[in-house]
Amino acid sequence: MKKNIGARIDQLINMADITLTTEVRPSGLGLPSVSNEHFYEFKSASLSFIKNLFGTEHPYYSEFDTLAHDSTPYCTKQCRGLLRAIKTEIDDGWIFTVKGLISAEIFSDFLEMAEYLLEEKYKDAAAVMIGSVLEESLRQISLKNSISVETVKDGKARPKKADTLNSDLASASIYNKLDQKSITSWLDLRNKAAHGKYDEYTIEQVNVMYQGVTNFISRMTES
Length: 223
Fold this sequence. Notes:
2 domains, two-stranded antiparallel sheet
């Protein structure tokens, strides 16, 4: 994960360097500028990277978006400086330690709630909760391995469905076909619970799902 994301941010910093080579200084009092095409390609790619790594609510995202307001050498250098700050955090491993701990803690809390629901015989609510944890886990594993969690349709970015993420992760050999098959069955059970098809599965099957998802997340967290 660290290697792949580190390589990507190096590419983005290189895009900034290339953009700066297009600098044009007009005669008179005009401000210097850089190629609009290069600048906005650099801006879009960088914002997408920061969004996938931190989310749109993180200060890095909003700060970069603010800094990248004009195709000028100054704005390009400011944005490059912010990317270098992110690179330092990546190289030091701080980002992944904190994000991993937070995700693990949240997943653990929800799985504990699901376990309680199962003990109280609320199989349907437990199935939905376990399925939600599984889907978010697939999203986090995809981001960790530089696999896109969005698809573009009609010019708009839309989140990939869990089944698609499952297929993409297995195709990339992040886990094996047996894991993929198990995840497909767990997602199917979650969908049945979410759509009120309560008589199509048993509490024993939800218990198996709970154990399977818990073990799967544990293995993926350690890898």
